Records
---
Amino acid sequence: MSHTQFKLLIFVFMILIVFNLFRGLYFLVTGKGGGKNTARSLTWRIGLSFLLFLVLMGLKLSGVVEPHALNEAPTTTVNIKTTDKKDDGKTLEEIQQQDDNSGGRVRLKQ
């Protein structure tokens, strides 16, 4: 399955799910069908959502779709100015580590 076909499959499922959601809303608001049409539309929406989930899980298990990690933010050091001379030039992590070792107090001054 190509990348384009995969996106098209997901798009068609999403359009059908949203269509049935709004169709159920229409029947709910207008009262047509005595509730049967509303229930049928919402049942179709739930069924299509479940089927989409199964398709995605099947594609993942077969190796067609590979999940990716979230983009992790690069770690940066932050220098915080404090009134204590012993903390000058230390990063936030170093100050917190020092405070964690001194009884659990955290001092952050700006």
---
Amino acid sequence: MVRNVDLAEELAQDALVVALSAWPRTGVPANPGAWLMAVAKRRAVDAFRRDQMRERKHQEIARTLPGYSDATRDGAAEAIEAAMDDDLGDELLGLIFTACHPMLSPDARAALTLKVVGGLTTDEIARAFLSSEAAIAQRIVRAKKAIAKAGLTFEVPRGAERAARLPSVLEVIYLIFNEGYAATAGDDLVRPGLCLEAQRLGRILAGLMPEDAEVLGILALMEIQASRQRARTGPDGAFIPLTEQDRARWDHLLISRGLDALARAEALRGDGPYVLQAALAACHARARRAADTDWPRIAALYDRLRVVAPSPVVDLNRAIAHSMAFGPEAGLRLADEIADAAALRDYAPLPAARGDFLFRAGRLAEARSQFKAAATLTRNARERAFLLARADACDCKH
């Protein structure tokens, strides 16, 4: 509404401060979100009216909106509010499309949207991108400056412009889901609220774009992965790997939804990264027991995925799949090929995977060293405890 990311953040913070002062006396309102939005809007309008330059900008924004006339000159705030209405039917999804502006680089779009709209911390975003916190912070600052300098009109895109922004939107939604599915830091292994929000956005998108294979693919992927949430941790919160999970605890309604979305994507001849990842997840979902998993098919799917969406993480997952399909030595050979990748230098899953390969190969002393190294790199307490337990298991095996 105000065409300025920093100002929007300040207004939101002001509204929260007012709420912290008012709500203990008056009680929490029936619609807290609407209350906060109303306070923030009033503060915005007051600021515009106090500052002549901002008042002119306010009027200029309003003149660009459909339906502006002299009759609305004094109701510019209402005109701006009306402009926020869109056919997506969801405010958060509309904001994500709005923030993924094409003038920014794809990485900058994703980082800014995750920070401002998705609510992730700079550190969480940095770990999702396998980058440093300082680099991501600079990326976000540069994006904000570019937006301010260009004086962009933020509005929900339609038609071809919306389609052009879709890949960035899907990336943001899946990064939000991933932070919920495997928290990068803290005491909790999962953050279910983030997963649920990403799934909700995916379902809305699939309803709006039922003929887009990648939209269906990301929905299928999230539904199938989310189906395992209850089985991923024990009663004490300890991490349970996929191969050891009680599959009776998987949510079979979510699996059914995911497989249905995948079938629709494949019927559209989808072969993009999200469809391929959903097909990978489906291999696990269809296996009644871990021993029934079709690892050769999973390895083949990763071979295709690294062509469609090359990345060091895909290469690492491919090494894991090949180790399960063709033996731990096959995994070690592929892991050695990516050992010097800069993006994986401080990435805990790399030494964790190598530890597993070495453990299954009977090279226990080396495996213990790798598990210890992985434990020092992770910032998630549950994951660290799991890795240290695996290191101890190497001693027990002697």
